[in-house]
Amino acid sequence: MYRMGKNSIDRGSKDTWTLSPKRAEAITAAAKAGQAPADDNAGGRGGRGGGAGAVTVGGRGSGNIAMKYFDTILRNPALRDPRGYIMTADQADMGTVVRFINTCLRSGLVVQKATTAFTVEGKSYPAGSYVIKTNQAFRPEVLDRFEPQDHPNDFLYPGGPPIRPYDMTGWTLSYQMGIKFDRILDDFNGPFKRIPYGELQAMPSAPAPAVASAGYMLSGQVNNAFIAVNDLFNAGAEVYRTKTAEGSFPAGTFYVAYSPKAKIVLDKAAKELGVNAIAVSNKPANLLPINAARIGVWDQYGGSIPSGWVRWMMEQYHFPFRLVYPQELDGGDLKTKFDVIVFVGGAIPAPARAGGGGGFGGGGGFGGRGGEVPAEFKIMQGRVTADKTVPQLKAFLEAGGTIVTIGTSANLAYDLNLPVHNALVDNVNGKEVPYSGDKFYVPGAVLRATLDPTQPANWGMPAEADVLYDSSPAFKLDADAASKGVKPLMWFNTDKPLRSGWAWGQKYLKDDVAAFSAQVGAGTLYAFGPEITFRGQAHGTFKLLFNELYKK
């Protein structure tokens, strides 16, 4: 155990290069481009059966690759492993940075914090910035949190089906949480103080807000601002969002009308959550009033893991909600009970369509055999169906309700006959057939998506964000989609969106829509293909759900 830790410390104290599947492919490609001679019969120091200064990369007759081709990749200074990472203290959502740092501390990582401003590689960083170096015993864990995972292109046989991984292929936590950081390749030092082992960090405190003549502005980029807003509702405060930019405040900024009760809540939010409430003397002109919503979260008999994570998230961020089961959905009259209903992945099954290309797999829930289910749990039985449930959901939308679907529950869009269709299909003899695994396969990876931050559903989000994609839906909008009230919210604008993991055939995602909103009567359906709430980890995309959880 000591030797393992010492080896990691040593590796983090010098220049190292990590061999990965993609780098192995690059080495092979470099050798092929250089037409490296094969030497199957050579002996000596180069490796099994290889000549001096050469390494065998295959079986009998495959030949050797000269060491110089390894050196082009594994001695390229730009491809070195980092000596450490710096998370600057002046990024937009420091509360989420602290949450990330606390996950590192809980895992036993050595974390340091800058006591004063400092400069590294010509860049200035403020006091309070966090530093994690790699010359520590748990170096592999450090790299795992900041570097992309690289999964090989793993197939059962050439041209055959992919070998399914046990779980995710890419999960880089800093990407999922939207953390901004710099990779430092050379050794560096500064006014850094180590955080004592196991000492979790408190949220950064913000200045107590001044007494305002009109009200306060709260950034919609800050996840903790949603906690403050929900607490403000409980205090009876008036809360709005700006429809357009107001000076230095972008669209989607929260505006809170001044009242003594609101001031008390904001004082607490500044101290405990780091939410900076900026006093303003004039009420912005273009405001959207928001109120606490009656939120329903779908669940099923036997439980749903994704639903459980959403429940946990809502508890952490102080959203009121209650669970809703298929029998209650089938009973109708939903608008008298809810303003928003959330369906996580697996809630809504794919519609039965010729060719199987219409929808996405998953969903249904446990029916349960009546005689084996205790009486108090029978209300939880049943499953969402096209004939009973969907008409009630459509009526809920038409009456002004909001439905949020995540992952495969975007199947609801097809049940509602919206002008969208599955982007990940081939046309075979006039029928839509899902891409085969040897053509397209993305089993749990982090991808980079493009968003329109002016859309209310995306308020507070950057123009680009990392999303967790797990065999997720992707869409094409029909030519008349815009005229029918369908708006793209998120899409892939490149043929190489992969950030971490395995994305075979990722080129097929280029220009595909990952999320959209659709007007249905007086209500709105929001369909998010990626797992925007994935296991309570994807803090960088939480706002895509939170923005829809208010009554507008």
Give a quick rundown of the structure.
With 552 residues, this protein is an alpha+beta fold. It has 13 helices and 29 strands. The model is unreliable at 36-52 and 58-62 (pLDDT under 50).
Report on this model:
The chain is an alpha+beta fold and 552 residues long. The strands form seven sheets. Strands 15, 16, 17, 18, 22, 23, 25, 26, 27 and 28 form a ten-stranded mixed β-sheet that branches. The chain has a six-stranded antiparallel β-sheet with strand order 13-10-12-11-14-29, covered by helices on one side. A five-stranded antiparallel β-sheet has the order 8-3-7-4-9. It is globular, with a radius of gyration of 26 Å.
